[in-house]
Design goal:
The protein has 224 residues and is mainly α.
Length: 224
């Protein structure tokens, strides 16, 4: 698909040609402290309740799929859109819509509701009539990730329905750029869940409460 044209209109390449290095390596998608939360000391997984360790373990398949997705995006950027890259991209979005959405909506729902209550009780929340906590922030990030994924899927679908080649390449380029944003967003989201959210849960929720959450989750997984 004329990858040389895609490279010419690559906005990141143009930014580099204009001297983006003058920004001292800072990027809005890679803030200096994003992976170094100043107020939370992460708890090692081995010290957490099995319920939390199980949730952390469910992030491993997402990270594997995310790596494969990133490789597919780079492949499209470097060698063009192929049947193989199309299959790899489709696989990731199917995984995201199934497994990731399931983890966010079902497996974590009870934990997040309880943690939100505990954070409110501890005064760890924002001000206002509807005080927000770290749980609200994390749920917003999950929603943003799924919305961004939907945008990318729509871009990819549109790109190959356009009759004009340059228009196709512009839309495809937008899909690839948003895909890079999605990759970073999901990686940061997983990091914050593992290092911040689950650490707060470990400190504020009792072992007995975790046992109850684990029992309810086991019952919910049993076939009816």
């Amino acid at each position: 698909m004329g990858v040389h044209i895609l490279n010419r209109i690559d906005p990141l390449r143009k930014q580099a040609e204009r001297g983006a290095d003058s920004a001292a390596g800072l990027s809005p998608m890679d803030p200096p402290d994003a992976y170094s939360p100043p107020s939370v000391d992460p708890v090692p997984a081995a010290e957490m309740h099995p319920y939390l360790r199980n949730l952390r373990g469910k992030h491993a398949p997402l990270m594997d799929e995310l790596k494969a997705f990133e490789e597919a995006v780079l492949s499209v950027r470097n060698t063009g859109y192929t049947r193989e890259s199309d299959a790899r991209l489709r696989r990731f979005f199917q995984f995201l819509d199934g497994e990731f959405a399931s983890l966010s909506r079902r497996d974590e729902a009870a934990l997040l509701a309880l943690l939100h209550e505990r954070l409110i009780a501890e005064g760890e929340h924002g001000k206002g009539e509807n005080p927000h906590t770290a749980v609200d922030l994390m749920e917003d990030e999950c929603a943003k990730a799924l919305q961004l994924a939907a945008v990318i899927v729509n871009f990819l679908g549109l790109a190959f329905r356009l009759p004009d080649e340059r228009s196709r390449l512009v839309v495809l380029d937008a899909a690839l750029e948003e895909s890079k944003n999605l990759i970073e967003l999901l990686r940061l989201l997983v990091f914050r869940k593992d290092s911040v959210l689950y650490t707060l849960a470990h400190r504020l929720i009792s072992a007995a409460a975790f046992d109850a959450l684990q029992s309810r989750a086991a019952v919910a997984r049993k076939p009816s």
